Amino acid sequence: MRIFATIKIALRALRRNKMRSLLTMLGIIIGVGAVIGSVSLTSGATKQIEDQVSSLGESVVTVFSGNFTQGGMRGGWGSAPTLTVEDTDAILNNVPNVVAVSPEVRDRDQVLANGMNWNTQVMGESPDYPQIRNWPMASGAVFGDQDVRSLAKVAIIGQTVVDELFPNENPLGQTIRIRNLPFKIVGILSPKGFNLFGQDQDDIVVVPYTSHMHRITARTFVNDILVEAANDGAIDKVQSDITDLLLTRHHSKEQDFTVRNQLELMQMVTSTSKEMEFLLAGVAAVSLAVGGIGIMNIMLVSVTERTREIGIRMAVGARATDILIQFLIEAVTLSAIGGTIGIMLGMAFSMVIASSRHMPTITPVFWIAIAFVSSALIGVISGFYPAWKASKLDPIDALRYE
Amino acid sequence: MQTHAVIKLAGLHKVYHTGEVDVHAVQGVSLEILPGEFVAIMGSSGSGKSTLMNMIGCLDRPSDGHYWLDGTDISTLDRNALADIRNKKIGFVFQGFNLLSRTSALENVEMPMLYNHQRLHSGEQLERATNALEIVGLAQRADHHPNQLSGGQQQRVAIARALVNRPSLLLADEPTGNLDSQTSIEIMGVFQKLNEQGITIVMVTHELDIARYTKRMVILRDGKIVTDEVVRDRLIAANELQRLREAQQAVKLA
Asked: Is the CB of A12 inside 8 Å of chain B's CB atoms?
């Protein structure tokens, strides 16, 4: 087949009617553009969420203390004090594939330093906390087991606290006062940014959990326990082992705690975006079908207009298949160019939106491929009938056509 | 027996089934045209000459009878085979020129080569097309579009297009029908020159003046051949043009 020459003929025919070709493509352009634009925006948002979820630590299992129920009022996770430091030790010692644990105690306090004050989250944690959260130190070092045993008054602080209390100096070695107790700053956590729920993760002061429980809050229970599994694959087993262990330890028939892992959280968040993608695919299908009808319409007009040309081509030896392919290629070229323009417009659109909102964009390679292939396919489908009609013309009638 | 004839028609019939009555357009035409002949098929409208021409041009198939073109019986071939024959063996020249508009003369001439079975590479295509335009004396207008050319020039482009695949047969359907008398003579001059080079030409016309430039006249009436004779006192286009110019000079027309 003389494909190249036929493509050239088709392109020339399209160039001849620039405005008409453009208007014909518009349906495909808008459809594909809208889909690519919104897909790259949503997948960018999904990626952002996934990044944030994994920034919490990937193979981390969190044990929340139980919900507190009184007079029919249920308090939600962590409202009842059911978890203890001993539970933490038991998990570390008895559950296989656990590499690190940290009992977590939370409190909000007014902290003072340098003649300034700031209300922040004060956490009691074990020295494994930065490792579990996958959160390296920017400078200094995390407190050690010795500090935990001795209820040491040492703290590591996040970047926001540094900015608020030590604007122009190095906070390492300085003192920060929590509930009027002086804590020595031994380390600074690297900036981590905002989490999924819009909280500033760097607005934090971390002290040994023993110091927190005995010196700051005088608590005997922990809010929750962070457990790091050896790897992603071990998470499910670790989770069920912890559940079994704690049920035994708490001697309760009802589970007074909740075990969650990051994977579940990730699945929860990304399931909505999957639904979104299906919705978009539906919109895409409708708009491509509409665009295809436009192409079919114009191709039918074009075949009628060029009946004489078809007759001439047949008279000099074009076979029916040559004519069929000529018009088919014309339709496919229309829709493929439309699809390409749509893809570029969609990408440009999503980049503009994303950059104005400081969101990442993902080039949705899969969707671009889908969009291109399906717009070309639309061309084949909608061009076939007009092209077939053209190829079935009788050369004598076509030549006589006025 | 039919090997040496370019065209051999044996008892050719064509019946159109349109509406209630069947139209018997060609009723048993037998004809033999040898290589190097220049034949005019004449007849009034409705005589069946166009129908006969369409069948000779492999645009249409006979209802009955046989047609050998270059020794091949084409009455039984299918659409694709007919298309290939039109491409390889036949060059068409039409009354209305039938050039593709908004396409240069050169590209119009190249067009039949797009449908060749053995594809020529583009250099050879260009060479052949330019060559064909030179034969009709239009090489310097190769990049002109049909609407920038006069009627006579457009018909020359059409002839170049018909020649480009080096056919053994050139078919012309009223080639001078849309042209003034001087341009008509010029076109007949082109045909006579081509015929001298050995190309067989079959031309449909209803003008006796034009038919006198050919070598043989076949006259049809009601789908049958009524006259088939050699043209006596044949006109030579070069002489006629010369005479026309002198006449024009006499009245200071040109």
From this structure: yes
Yes or no: say if A36 and A342 are a contact pair by the CB < 8 Å rule.
Answer: yes
Give the one of A311, A312, A317 whose C-beta lies nearest to B83's C-beta. Answer: A317
Chain B closest CA to A278's CA: distance in Å? 46
Burial A17-33 (b: 16+ CB within 10 A, else e): eeeebeebbebbbbbbb
CB contact under 8 A, B83 and A318: yes
CA angle, residues B74, B78, B79, in degrees to nearest 5: 110
CB nearest A315 (choices: B92, B99, B116): B92
CA distance A326 to chain B (A): 12
CA–CA distance, A345 with A326 (Å, rounded to integer)? 28
Residue B89 near chain A (CB below 8 Å): no
ipTM attached to this prediction: 0.91
User: Cβ contact (<8 Å) for B92 and A316?
Assistant: yes
What are the sequence ranges of the domains in chain B? 7-97+167-250
Query: Can you tell me the distance from the alpha carbon of B105 to that of B146, in angstroms, rounded to the nearest whole number?
Result: 7
Say if residues A177 and A113 touch (Cβ distance below 8 Å): yes
**CA–CA min distance B218, chain A (Å):** 23
Residue spans of beta strands (DSSP E) within A143-180? 154-157, 175-178
Per-residue pLDDT tens for B124-140?
999 999 999 999 999 99
Q: What is the pLDDT of residues A39-66, one digit of tens each?
A: 888 888 777 777 766 666 668 888 888 7
Select from B21, B5, B179, B160 the least CA-distant residue to B92: B160
Q: Are β-strands A224-229 and A98-113 bridged in parallel, bridged antiparallel, or unpaired?
A: antiparallel
Q: Estimate the crossing angle of helix A262-305 against helix A307-315, to 10 degrees.
A: 80
Average pLDDT on A333-356 reads 90
In the CATH scheme, what is the code of domain B7-97+167-250?
3.40.50.300
